[in-house]
Write a structure and sequence with these properties.
Radius of gyration: 20 Å
Strand content: 15-25%
Largest sheet: 5 strands, antiparallel
Strand order of the largest sheet: 6-7-13-11-12
Helix content: 25-40%
Distance between the termini: 30 Å
Shape: globular
Length: 311
């Protein structure tokens, strides 16, 4: 009877004390760029790394933890996310240039890092202005665009594991490969050390402007979207076609499912055209994958992270 009573207690009553903020039934749809998805059972916004480490160390082992950033490369399913959803805030968003290196918090926006690197005359981080999201997510997936990626500029990182223990992996230990890193799934990045090369600030800023202009012209940035939906296939792809080309060849440009649509401007983007559910978006993505496979024999792999439970 006592065990049953403990299981029925609200999760928030089982959590350790924090200095940051714990919120039950926290809405997530307004956070994600798709504008869809159910709530977090509990949202935790730690004050700083020590607050997070203490929380993780005392958190019951059966409570799942899901980390989200600004919701740009994320699809939260309609049933929401069970357990604790962790979102790093201002205490993890520092950006500190030091010579040709930049110490950055995991919650720092990629575009802000690119901008401050330019002002400091640090070249090599320009690609980050084309990556929507935060440094933590960029580390996890080795984010890249416009000829650059995190593997090229990251010299080390800092992370906490599920028990709150700190780790400082080197570039080699991060194990970067195409759109992924090799660190444990339960590690939570808190900071990174990036390194570039000396360049004229004016030259770097011109490149930033070029990337932004190209994005504006080729991507549906003013719609509810999650960015590139599928990774460019590396295996069983003798022509080297990119994901968008395969999707176009399969006749999926403009394809719809409920309120979700394959963008006509860039068909590796799914968009919420109005009133879409997370299920609409995910089902549309699976239909695209099916049609591409039927036509080409190539299986597209999701780049957008899908989390939570379906209704």
């Amino acid at each position: 009877m006592m065990a049953a009573t403990r299981r029925q207690r609200p999760l928030i009553e089982r959590l350790p004390p924090v200095r940051g903020r714990l919120t039950a039934a926290a809405p997530l749809a307004g956070i994600t760029w798709f504008g869809v998805g159910g709530p977090a059972e509990i949202m935790f916004r730690p004050l700083d790394e020590a607050d997070l480490a203490d929380f993780l160390a005392a958190l019951p082992a059966d409570v799942p933890v899901t980390v989200i950033g600004v919701g740009s490369n994320l699809l939260v399913r309609d049933g929401g996310i069970a357990g604790v959803v962790l979102r790093l805030g201002r205490g993890f968003a520092t950006i500190e240039p030091d010579g040709m290196r930049i110490r950055v918090g995991a919650a720092a926006l990629d575009v802000n890092v690119a901008t401050l690197a330019a002002e400091a005359g640090i070249g090599g981080c320009e690609f980050l202005t084309g990556v929507p999201g935060t440094i933590g997510g960029a580390l996890r997936m080795n984010a890249g665009a416009y000829g650059g990626d995190m593997a090229q500029v990251t010299t080390g990182a800092r992370a906490l594991d599920r028990r709150g223990r700190a780790h400082e992996p080197s570039r080699i230990e991060l194990g970067f490969s195409y759109r992924k890193s090799a660190v444990a799934d339960d590690w939570i990045f808190t900071a990174a050390l990036l390194e570039g090369a000396a360049a004229e600030p004016a030259t770097i800023k011109r490149r930033l402007a070029e990337i932004r202009a190209e994005r504006e012209a080729t991507q549906p940035l003013r719609t509810k979207t999650g960015g590139s939906t599928f990774k460019n296939p590396k295996n069983n792809n003798p022509t080297g076609a990119k994901a968008w080309e395969l999707i176009d060849q399969a006749g999926c440009r403009g394809l719809t499912r409920g309120g979700a649509k394959v963008s006509e401007l860039h068909c590796n983007f799914l968009v919420n055209g109005g009133g879409a559910t997370a299920a609409d978006i995910e089902e549309l993505g699976e239909e695209v994958r099916r049609r591409v496979f039927d036509r080409t024999g190539i299986t597209l792999e999701w780049e957008i992270r899908r989390v939570g439970e379906a209704l």
